[in-house]
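Ligand: zinc ion. Inputs:
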Amino acid sequence: MDNGQKDSKLFSDLEYLGFNKTDNWELYGSNTAGPEKQAVKEVEENKEKTLLYEREVICPVCETRFNARAVKVSAARTVSKDSDFFIRYSVINPYFYDVWVCNSCGYASMKKDFEYIKEHQIEHIKKNITSRWRGRKYPETYDLDIAIERYKLSLLNYAVRNAKNSSKAMNCLKIAWMYRLKEDVESEQTFLLQTLEGLENAYYNEDFPMYGMDRFTTMYLIGELSRRTGNDEKAMQWFSKVITTTSVSPKLKDLARDQKDLIKFDHSHNDTDLSAPAAGEPAAEGSKKGFFRSIFRGL
Ligand SMILES: [Zn+2]
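Predicted complex:
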């Protein structure tokens, strides 16, 4: 029973006054927040607008000029960093503005890669994205749900243009982080697992640095994402590799030791046995069919 039906009973003795269709009347319903909360939201949105600027961009697919919203460098305030490098911000969240979307053709990408698209990839975008694109008007400021939608649109573009695994993985990681902010654990795990698959593949097949990460940082991140997705054995193997590689910085080794201790601590408290890590490099896992179909639902 929804609130409208439930609340209609509150007004049920007023039929004789002519109020006999009260099914959709709610006493509190969605207005509980009141006008004050709405006013606060507007003040926050107006404040956020002052922290943004418009940056002119030329779409490499259709050559349309458009203004992408960007966060002023001085605006972002870092609050903390999670163990998988997710940065938590106050005031404004730069992740929300990380994806640029060309509204003329549907081409979307994380801004770092936006210009870097090859001729044959452009053809894939035109054929598979532009032909279906209906356009979308976004509000002046973006929220978490919009950020997720834009990151997914970007990921769909990466899939269509057959981008590098590191790009797909990094895009998946950012979606996982957005779901972490949304406290949607299941979706976060789905995207962390996809990140892991792409990142392992990139680790073995691509050049470093990738997205600002060197080989050792990537090793650590693979370990940490394994830990976060419940594969402690694999996490221990990667952390051990970081710790025992001589040229790794002391800071990164400390991070790996901390996360290794965390696993040991969890296991000692859960009374579970953690078998010793096997020698050699951990193998990458196989791909999951149908994944792209399921994550792009709703676009
Ligand atoms: Zn375009």
